[in-house]
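A protein record in our archive is deliberately plain, so that people and models can read it alike. The tokens are whole numbers drawn from a learned vocabulary of local backbone shapes. For reference, a complete record is included directly beneath this paragraph.
>
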Amino acid sequence: MEPTTTTDAAIPAKRPLFLTILCILSFVGIGFSLISGIMSFLSYSALATAGNALEGVAAQNGAKAGEAANALANVMGLDYHKWALVALIQAILNLPILFGVFMMWKQKKLGYFIYAPFEIIQAAMPLIMGLGLIGGLSAILGLIFAVVFVVLYGLNLKHMSGLKADGDKSEKPAAANQKQSPAAAAVKGGTYYEVRVSNVTCIPVAATFKVGLTVTAKKFVSDAKTGKVKEEMINDEIQIGMLKDGKEIYLKSYKFTKTITSLNLVLSQKPDKIGIDPYNKLPEKP
């Protein structure tokens, strides 16, 4: 089936519960991380200032014990200047991470490719900054959680749309590219139709997909002599077709007797697009 008729609508997918839970957990975690990062920055900055004062006193008194303690602190990764910088960087990195999670909440794949690298970098910062044994242990623990979430989000990529922005119209509905049907072009009088689908939803239910849509179908009769057109009550069969990966997975005729009709269909596969009158059997209004 090559839908070229009045409507070829993309099927929006409902966000899965698993992805919703992951995003909520990330939103909460990012909030805590941002607050703790700022507090840690202030705390480590204060400790670094106090440490500088103690080092000055030790230098004046020639305290060997103080120098030994400082050397041990460096090995353990207790450089408060670096910890303050790490805390600040980690707090700032929450911003692109938050943006990435928000994009995934909107089911955009771009969000994953923003989130994943910044999440890994944020967790690895103590190791990147060379914060010794404590920094290494902290980084390993953080990386474990980061990798787990990156993998879990990766499992949900199939539920997200492509990297194109919403404004990208490279994939236009068939309505924007349709050609007038031969039947409509051949005559100036006769019967014509205006049909389209809207309010399309697709909800996974067990091993099936419940597709909902609204069909608007209008019928017009044109007088060949006067050219006047009047609308008539529709009472016609019109085909509904669906595609997955460019292949037809559903095609069925429905009789429409009202201008607006709601349909609920159950499919074994999730469709990518839905079209009404996919083979242009109805003459279109010129």
Remarks:
- The beta strands are 7-10, 190-205, 208-222, 229-232, 236-244, 247-256, 260-267, 273-276.
- Confidence is low (pLDDT under 50) at residues 1-7, 163-187.
